[in-house]
Amino acid sequence: MFANNGQEVFDHVLFGYRVAESEKVMLPVMIHIDGFILTHVIEPVEFWEEEQVERYLPEFKPIHPLHPDRPVTMGALGMPDIFSEAKVAQDEALIQSKSEIISAWKELGDIVGRYYKPIEAYKSEDAETLFITQGSFGETVSLVVDALRDEGEPVGLLMDRLWRPFPFQEFRQAVGDAKNLIVIDRAISYGGQGGPLAIDVRSILYKEKNQ
Questions:
Q1: Which end of the chain, C or N, has fewer beta carbons within 10 A?
Q2: Confidence band for 185, pLDDT divided at 50, 70 and 90
């Protein structure tokens, strides 16, 4: 998950526990926070009430608890005959986690009034050119969009919040009939065909008639 500001960071730390500890997921959740831009900036954040946290985070009951009377092996070496199967199972589990992610966002919004989506759109309905960002770049680029709109430029913004599993369908719908996509990546893929986000965007639109 990518956070745009301090409030989203705070909300998504709790969200991360909610998703990761779900029996339907049981996978690690990473909340991406931009170093310095978010970690070293003071901004107002609305804290949750204790009652809200208790409503959102059920009591954690591990499926495979460690107990001396019931010894188990965890994190053992996977030999070649099962390693590939294990990785495929991880991939399938990650893909299946999307429904739980959407549900957790809905529940979060119902409790604190802030609703999150895999792809957040800003002034994109009639945009011919769309900026695509992750993390705190989104708020910065939204100011650029406002300035360009004032000059008559039909631009908009798509902020990718959910990185994996990638929200392919939501992204394609959000792009709509835009003619130009400007991807601002947070990283580079050494020796690759652009940054990680740009590579995903290119692959999503590969079969489109109007590329």
A1: C
A2: very high
